[in-house]
Each structure stands twice: as C-alpha cells, then as structure tokens.
Amino acid sequence: MSIIFFTVFLTLTVSSFLLKDDNRLARFWSRWLPLFMHAIVYYVAGFSILVVNEKGEEQTDLPFIPEASVLVSNHVGYWDIPILLEAFEPTFVAAESVQDVPIIGRIAKILGTIFVKHPNKIEKNKSSATFLISRLQWLTKQRNEKGENNTTRPIVIFPEGTTTNGSYLLPFRTGAFAAGVPIQPIHLEFPFRRLNPAWESIGFWRHILFFFAQPSHEATVTILPPLMPHNDAAKFANEARTAIAQSGNLQLTDMVYRDKRDYHRALMKQGYH
C-alpha cells in the first residue's frame, strides 16, 4: 500500500511540475495535494505526530489554530513541511531557489509558498524584504479584523535559513522580526532510534532509501506562547531563538549557512555523497 501511494504521488507531482500553472492537473493538485500529503505522512512515511503546548499538554483538535499569524520554527529537514501542514495547514516562506528544485519546488508553488531571496542575500534585496514584511503585517491585520471568522492561513518561517541535525540552533535572520507583529515560536523534534530524519551530510536518495526502510517515525511539535514585538528586530529574533532552544534543549551555535556549505563541500571532496 505504501509503495502504491508513493508511486501515485510521485507520478502526478512530476506531471504537474512539467505542465503549466493554468492547466486542469495543476488545479486538481491545488485542491487535493493536502489530502495526498496527509496520506504520505501517515500511511507512507508511517509518522506518529504529537502536537503539544509548552506545558506538554496534547492538542488533539488539528489543524491547531495558533494565537499568532506568524509562526517561527527550527528547521530540521524536508519532512518539516508535511508535518507542519498536518499541525497548522499553513503556507511557508522559502528561498526563491526552492522553486527550481524538482518536485519539491512544484509542491511549494501549489501550497502558495512565499519565495524570497536567500537569507544571505535578502539584506541586499530591499524589495524582497519589504514584500515579506508587508505580507506578515497584512496577515496580522486580517486576523485582528476578522477575529474568529478569519480563514487566512498562518505563515511558517524558518529563520535559520537552512536545516540542521536537530540538536543545534543557528542564528536567526531578522527579516520577519522587523515586521512589528506577534510571533509564535514552534519547536519541531523527530525522536529517532536508528536514522535521523534530518537531511544532513547524506545524499538525498540514499537518505530516502534508509528512511523508508524503517517501519515508523515520530514527530513532536511544541507550540510555545506568542511573543509580542518591540522595536529591536535583532533582540526580538534572539528572544524567539532562546525560547525554541530552551524548549528543545538545543545548543546555540554561531555557525551559519556559509559554514554548512563549506562543510558539505569538504565532505564531497572526500568522497561522501
């Protein structure tokens, strides 16, 4: 059954990637992709998802409606997206380079992802940063005006700008924190015994093979209290980073995306793929 689900999902996604946005298949996927993602998470990947608040109390009514419209989370790997889709049904902010990634880029477009310049370049691209800030402000305004009748999906941002192995937390980029809106931190964790679901230092297809060789996986999403904004974006970002680190007992590091890229290049030179 898992193989059937995965084959159908992969085939239709590839075909959608090859066709234009305004065709019937693309419209079909925009409507049914969340359902297929649900099937992938539970029946193909075999995930058991636990959503809890800061006190450890389980939230069983999913998707959970967060108190803030902007969610910030640590970034572990490619499974973060479907897991958070199950928990909140959000849209995401991603580097514009994600659009060019086969299959994943196509899925991101269908999910309404907001694409911006890579965090290493966003400070040099004021229009990209301005667009993101205005979008976050608009979402918060919609939520405040409509209250319980608000149907606008929240936005998830990964302020580290890249993934980690799940044990560390990189410095947060400050773009989203300059919007002057409330932020709700989230800690994402993948307890594992053999294979870490984090996609680090291992080739994608090799990781996929090892991942599906395991019968089941676990994911825990911890929803932390919302943080109120203040004028200092860097201080606000550090406040959210500290909250997530304390929740997951993560180690803070000063390493950034550039350091990770150099590390991976060194591994490839030594024959690791």
Name the descriptors.
single chain, 273 residues, alpha/beta, seven-stranded mixed β-sheet, two-stranded parallel sheet, 9 helices, globular
Summarize the structure in short.
The protein has 273 residues and is an alpha/beta fold. 43% of the residues lie in helices and 14% in strands. The longest helix has 21 residues.
Walk me through what this model shows.
Helix 1 packs antiparallel against helix 2 (24-44) and helix 2 packs across helix 3 (80-88). The strands form 2 sheets. A 7-stranded mixed beta sheet has the order 1-8-7-2-5-3-4, sandwiched between helices. Strand 3, helix 4 (104-110) and strand 4 form a beta-alpha-beta unit. The mean pLDDT is 80. The chain is built from 9 helices and 9 strands. It is α/β, with parallel strands linked by helices and 273 residues long.
What is the CA-CA span between the terminal residues?
30 Å
β-strand number = 9
Mean pLDDT: 80
- The radius of gyration computed from the alpha-carbon positions, rounded to a whole number of angstroms, is 18 Å
Question: What level of helicity do the residues show?
Answer: 40-55%
SSE order, as H and E?
Answer: HHEEHEHEHHEEEHEHEH
Sheet with most strands: strand arrangement: 1-8-7-2-5-3-4
Q: Main sheet, how many strands, which sense, barrel?
A: 7 strands, mixed
Number of helices: 9
| Structural class computed from helices and strand pairing | alpha/beta
Beta content comes to 5-15%
Give start-end ranges of low-pLDDT stretches: none
Shape: globular
